[in-house]
Every structure is written in structure tokens, then in C-alpha cells.
Amino acid sequence: MKIVLALGGNALQSDPKDTSVEAQLKNCRETAKAIVDIVEEGHTLAIVHGNGPQVGQIIKTVNDAHASDKSNILYPLDVCGAFSQGYIGYHLQNTIQEELRRRNINKNVGTIVTQVEVNPKDPAFENPTKPIGSFYAKEEAEKLMAEKGYIMKEDAGRGYRRVVASPKPVNIIEKGLIKDLVEGGSIIISCGGGGIPVIKTGQGVKGIAAVIDKDFAAEKLAEMIDADQLVILTAVDKVCINFNKPSQQELSQVTMQELNQYIKEGQFAPGSMLPKVEACKKFVIFNPNKKAIIASLENAKEAIKGNTGTTIVYK
Ligand SMILES: Nc1ncnc2c1ncn2[C@@H]1O[C@H](COP(=O)(O)OP(=O)(O)O)[C@@H](O)[C@H]1O
Ligand SMILES: NC(=O)OP(=O)(O)O
């Protein structure tokens, strides 16, 4: 099968407090094993990853360098997004190549710097919701709001984080290239961090300050390269109702009708599980005969076989 695989934050950083380059590389080595397990099953893969912590870190580095010496360039958010694609793509392709070599599998792996078109009139530009970078105490957050004009929001009891606009993807500029390479059998990492957000202008496409949700970008890619399946990997094995309550129930297979009811009941947290569920819903509405899966990275291979994870079907 031709699969679009979206990697959650735990694929890159298992400990949110350890944002070091070494920790990311170590995590990628584990992630690469799960990815190559899927390749060994004979599937072709287009991989999409997030960049929330990393792009925030890059922005901070750029800002700190500028504050200490004004001759250092203050790179805009779209360029920082491009940096994050290179940084994360490099670690993923490096570790996947190594894992393939270890198992004597001959396949090409590479990263495509990907521009993703958004609508400049998307209401998301008026209401920033995407958390990026580190967590701050209330006082530090207030200082950053005053000094840098950032919008900072409390994130699920874990502290304050900067939030930026997260418009929906409407088109993937490099879709033809990605499709050709994936169909040729290469493992392609693209749309990293949801893609570099760009808008169409009379003079071609140009970058805009935003961070696109990687689950929505993965769904758009799955539509555009005609993938057989969308697989969203995260830290939990299955989507639940009554999550974290004594009455918690894991979902193995869910239809569109059931999903809509659960969404109405507020069963999925807006900044975490809801975008994944919404992305899967969009994929099966676009392809009523295909399935979308939400599963853990560790159990990805088994979830694709239908043995675990949550499968979303049209009906
Ligand atoms: N209803 C739910 N069922 C399962 N997990 C949920 C639910 N609501 C919220 N979550 C949480 O959402 C997390 C996934 O979101 P998040 O960590 O933001 O994604 P990512 O893996 O893309 O970084 C899960 O690990 C889980 O802790
Ligand atoms: N761009 C994006 O969705 O990143 P995260 O998954 O890290 O939030």
C-alpha cells in the first residue's frame, strides 16, 4: 500500500524537557526501526512530521543572536519553518538510511523542502492557536508578551507557550515530485512541520507567518498523492472516549457517524486528539472506500495490519 505516515511529537522527542540535538537523533533511531518495520511489510511511505518544539527553539536561537548582535539576521517564521524541515528531515533520513542498511534493504530515502499553500483569508490568521517552543511560567510569559509582542496561552496545565496562526493547507506545491518519488519506491519525508506556509500572489508564491498542523498537512498530502491509507502515529495506542476518566473506553473501529457524535460530545482535546480525528475524517470523506488509522508509533506495523490502533471508516 501507498501510505502517508504522520509522526507525532514523541517520534522526535520522548522527553519534552530534553530538546537537545542528541536527544532528537536518539529518538529518530528508535522511530526509524518502527518505520523500517513497515517498509519490510512491502508498503511505500510518504512521511510527515511535526515541528512545534523545534521551530520554537529555532526562533529563540535566531532572536537571541539578533538581540546580542544586531548584525545577525532576524529570520522570519516561514524561513524558520524551512530550517526545521532541514533539521528534522536530516535526522530522519539519516537514521532511516542506517536502519535500512542494517537490515540489508536497498531503498532511497530523502527529504523534500515543501511549500504548502494556505488561504490568506483563513480565519486562523485572526485567532492564533498553534503552540510552539518551550513552556514558560506565567511571569516569563507576560514578559515575552510585553517585550516581543508574542501571544502566549496556557497549554493544558503544563505552562504557557507561544501560539501562532495555523491556517488549513489548501495545496502542496511539490505534490507532483513527492508522488513520483513515492510511487518510484523511495521513502520521502515531506510537508515537515505541516509545510512552509505560502500564499499565491501575482508574482508567484511567497511565505507567510504561520505553522500548519502536520496532521492536516498529512491528510492533504494523502489526498494529493492518492494514498491508500492515512496513518497518524502518536503516543497512545488507540483513540478513547472519556479519555483519562475511570469510564475510559478505547475505540478499535469508528464510523463517520459515531465520530461526529463523539466530536459533538467534546471527547477529543482541541490541541491534541481533535486535529488527528478531524484529519482522518476528512480523508475518509474524500475516499469513502479507504481507511485512516490512529495508533502508537510502537504498534504502527500491527495497526496497519488491523490488529491494533483505531481505524476510521466512512461507514
Ligand atoms: N480522546 C482521546 N483519546 C486518546 N488520546 C487523547 C484523547 N484526547 C487527548 N488525547 C491525548 O492526545 C495526545 C496526542 O496529541 P499530541 O500529543 O498533541 O499529538 P502528537 O503525537 O502529534 O504530538 C495523546 O497522546 C493523548 O495524550
Ligand atoms: N506543525 C505541527 O503540527 O507540529 P507539532 O505536531 O509538533 O505540533
UniProtKB/TrEMBL annotation:
Q: Gene3D superfamilies in the record, alphabetically?
A: Acetylglutamate kinase-like
The organism's lineage? Bacteria, Bacillati, Bacillota, Clostridia, Eubacteriales
Recorded GO molecular functions are: carbamate kinase activity
Q: Which Pfam families does the UniProt record give?
A: AA_kinase (PF00696)
| Transferase as UniProt keyword | yes
NCBIfam families from the UniProt entry: arcC (TIGR00746), PRK12352.1 (NF009007)
Q: Which GO terms describe its biological process?
A: L-arginine deiminase pathway
The organism is Garciella nitratireducens DSM 15102
Q: Which residues form a coiled coil?
A: none
Q: Keyword Oxidoreductase on this protein?
A: no
The identity of this protein, by name, is Carbamate kinase
Could you state one GO cellular component term attached to this entry?
cytosol
Q: In which pathway does it act?
A: Metabolic intermediate metabolism; carbamoyl phosphate degradation; CO(2) and NH(3) from carbamoyl phosphate: step 1/1
Highest taxon above the source species = Bacteria
Q: Which residues form the Aspartate/glutamate/uridylate kinase domain?
A: 1-284
